[in-house]
């Protein structure tokens, strides 16, 4: 950013009314947010339309952009902001601001251009429009006229570019009706254009139409998935969450996307939020689905295993007071199914070992069974539930490791016997309780 300020431009700077300057730059009054002595607007330099990151200090006559990647982040006197946005030198900006008001030259240029367009003298008309644009860049309508003239002359790319720029300018300055009508037109010209979709989505967000915004962002996500661009997928999905923070489905989608790019901690956090939101909606099976999915795909998430257990054991529709106490006190519903559960895992290991495998038989007094019994008897229902999850996860790992050759047939047999021991130990405990 140019930091060479003349004494003259700094004197002018002291007299600038920041609010008036923004209006002169084309900002709509309701696009300017007053915050004490500060004014906040969407940054016209990095074309932000999500956060009002550009701050103008009405007393210090100073501005800066809070977005660290923005060239305006370092800030400067207001006259410099005006010069940058209006594409002028500091001296030109100071003269313009000192004059305070627009001259009557612009309407004359535009009228001439319009007359030439009617005579289909497009080349000449364009010259007038470009001159008006250069001298009065704050008037975005001129930019639209240039865009439409490009289209009229068959230069689709140039027309598209100018319309995009115009829509961004209107968006930044808060003229949302005009922004929307331009984007609608651009969507028709280029329905799969990524930038149009994104901008349109942000605009819907600002217009209080988050569903419409989400639909567009989801299309973009599909597009990025097809292009195998996981970073973009993550970014758009995070924007979706920002737009619709209470939407369980979007959280669930983000859970899987984070897991897909190896961000397991974030995946677990989103999963938890998704499960809670689903429960608030009364959609218990969706809450369990996403928890099951996560626990299966990302091992070691104890708190989610607990949450899943809690949801499994809770009766649907209890009052919040009773749900608090259930985790430790209620027997898990699948308690009686432990034998089948362990037998299923054994069967999985047998299948992994291959058709010629003959499992070791265990006698009822085998030391491994005794050890498993001691462990099981000392456990709370919740701990047993966690153990089951652990055993199931381990089987998946063992299967993979056996196929990779990391586990030998003998080791596999020992692991399988361990599962058999758990199964027998549980059967013994159940039989004694019944007796
Ligand atoms: Zn900025």
Could you explain the architecture of this structure?
This protein has 435 residues and is mainly α. Among the domains are: 7-99, Zinc finger, CHC2-typedomain (DNA Primase, Chain A), CATH 3.90.580.10; 246-318, Serine Threonine Protein Phosphatase 5, Tetratricopeptide repeat; 335-434, no CATH class. Helix content is 67%, strand content 4%. The chain contains 21 helices and 5 strands. It has helices at 7-15, 18-24, 78-85, 90-99, 105-118, 122-135, 140-152, 156-173, 176-189, 194-206, 210-226, 230-243, 248-260, 264-280, 284-297, 302-313, 320-329, 338-353, 367-377, 381-403, 409-434; strands spanning 33-35, 38-41, 54-57, 62-65, 76-77. Strands 1-2-3-4-5 form a 5-stranded antiparallel β-sheet. A hairpin with a 4-residue loop joins strand 3 (54-57) and strand 4 (62-65). Helix 14 runs antiparallel to helix 15 and helix 16 (302-313) crosses helix 20. Residues 43, 45-46, 48, 53-54, 65, 67, 70, 72 line the site of zinc ion.
């Amino acid at each position: 950013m140019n930091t060479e300020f003349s004494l003259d431009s700094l004197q002018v700077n002291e007299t600038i009314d920041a609010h008036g300057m923004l209006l002169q730059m084309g900002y709509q009054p309701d696009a300017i947010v007053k915050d004490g002595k500060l004014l906040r607007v969407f940054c016209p330099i990095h074309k932000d339309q999500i956060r009002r990151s550009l701050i103008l200090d009405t007393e210090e006559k100073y501005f800066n952009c809070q977005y660290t990647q923005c060239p305006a982040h370092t800030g400067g006197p207001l006259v410099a902001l005006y010069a940058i946005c209006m594409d002028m030198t500091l001296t030109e900006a100071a003269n313009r601001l000192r004059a305070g008001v627009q001259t009557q030259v612009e309407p004359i240029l535009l009228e001439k251009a319009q007359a030439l367009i009617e005579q289909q003298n497009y080349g000449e008309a364009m010259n007038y429009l470009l001159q008006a644009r250069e001298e009065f860049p704050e008037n975005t309508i001129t930019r639209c006229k240039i865009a439409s003239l490009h289209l009229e002359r068959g230069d689709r790319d140039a027309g598209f570019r100018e319309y995009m720029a115009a829509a961004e300018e209107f968006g930044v300055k808060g003229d949302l009706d005009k922004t929307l009508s331009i984007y609608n037109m651009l969507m028709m010209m280029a329905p799969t254009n990524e930038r149009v979709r994104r901008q349109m989505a942000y605009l819907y967000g600002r217009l209080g139409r988050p569903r419409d915004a989400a639909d567009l962002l989801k299309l973009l996500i599909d597009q990025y998935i097809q292009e195998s661009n996981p970073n973009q997928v993550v970014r758009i999905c995070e924007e979706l969450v920002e737009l619709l923070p209470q939407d369980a489905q979007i959280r669930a989608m983000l859970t899987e996307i984070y897991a897909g790019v190896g961000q397991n901690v974030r995946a677990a956090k989103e999963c938890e939020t998704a499960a809670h939101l689903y429960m608030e909606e009364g959609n218990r099976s969706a809450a369990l689905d996403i928890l099951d999915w996560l626990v299966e795909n990302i091992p070691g998430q104890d708190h989610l295993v607990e949450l899943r257990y809690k949801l499994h054991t809770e009766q649907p529709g209890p009052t919040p007071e009773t749900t608090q106490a259930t985790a430790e006190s209620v027997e898990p519903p699948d308690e009686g199914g432990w034998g089948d559960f362990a037998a299923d895992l054994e069967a999985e290991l047998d299948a992994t070992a291959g058709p010629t495998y003959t499992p070791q038989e265990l006698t009822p007094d085998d030391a491994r069974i005794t050890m498993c019994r001691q462990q099981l008897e000392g456990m709370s229902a919740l701990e047993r539930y966690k153990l089951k999850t652990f055993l199931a996860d381990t089987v998946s790992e063992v299967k993979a490791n056996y196929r990779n050759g990391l586990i030998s047939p003998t080791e596999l047999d020992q692991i399988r016997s361990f599962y058999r021991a758990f199964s027998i130990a549980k059967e013994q405990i159940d039989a004694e309780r019944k007796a």
